[in-house]
Design goal:
Blueprint lengths: L11 H17 L4 H15 L5 E8 L2 E9 L5 E3 L3 H9 L3 E3 L17 E9 L2 E10 L7 H17 L9
Antiparallel strand pairs: 1-2, 1-6, 2-3, 4-5, 5-6
Helix pairs in contact: 1-2, 1-4
C-alpha cells in the first residue's frame, strides 16, 4: 500500500528525514528508473512547502533534457552552463539562488519562480543530470535544504542505474 499522506513534522530536519525515508521505501521496492524518478518528483512536489516546481533534468547527448517533474510545463532542453540548472551541471555543485531574477542568464520556465535550488546528480564522477526545485518565495532555500536534497540524490544513486535513462 502506498503512503500518499502529506508529511508533517515539527521541524525542517525531521521533515526531510521522513521524506527521504518515504522516497527510499519507493525506490527500494521498484527497479524501473522512470517509475522511481516519477514517484520521487511527485513526493517532492506534494510535500515540500512553498514550491511551484520539482523535478529532474537528465543528461542526454551533452545537454539537460526534461525528465519527470511536478509543476507547470517546463523548458525541454537546457545547455550546459546556461541558467541555474546548466550552471550546476557545468560546475558539478549545488546552487542555491535566493533571487532568480538576479542570476545572470536565468531561464524562466515559470514566471512565478523567485528562488531555486539545483543539485547535480553525480555518480562515480559522472554527471547524469540535476534535481531542480523552484519556489515563488524569495530566499526559500537554505543550507538545510541543500544538505538533505544532496542526501536524497545519494539515495537515488544507490537505487538508480542512471545509464538506463541518461546518455552521457
Amino acid at each position: 500500500m502506498l503512503n500518499n499522506e502529506k508529511i508533517l513534522a515539527d521541524n525542517k530536519e525531521n521533515f526531510y528525514k521522513m521524506l527521504i525515508y518515504r522516497i527510499e521505501s519507493y525506490l527500494s521496492s521498484e527497479k524501473d528508473v522512470l517509475a522511481n524518478l516519477c514517484n520521487t518528483a511527485a513526493l517532492l512536489y506534494q510535500n515540500l512547502e512553498d514550491i511551484n516546481w520539482a523535478g529532474f533534468y537528465i543528461m542526454k547527448n551533452g545537454e539537460l533534457v526534461l525528465g519527470p517533474f511536478g509543476g507547470k510545463a517546463a523548458c525541454t532542453r537546457i545547455k550546459i552552463g546556461k541558467g541555474v540548472c546548466g550552471s550546476a551541471a557545468r560546475d558539478k555543485k549545488t546552487y542555491i539562488v535566493p533571487n532568480v531574477h538576479e542570476f545572470e542568464g536565468h531561464i524562466a520556465c515559470d514566471s512565478a519562480s523567485n528562488s531555486e535550488i539545483v543539485v547535480p546528480i553525480i555518480k562515480d564522477e559522472v554527471l547524469y543530470g540535476v534535481l531542480d526545485v523552484d519556489s515563488p518565495i524569495f530566499n526559500r532555500f537554505d543550507e538545510v535544504d541543500k544538505y538533505y536534497l544532496e542526501k536524497l540524490v545519494e539515495k537515488l544513486n544507490k537505487y538508480i542505474d542512471w545509464n538506463e535513462i541518461a546518455k552521457v
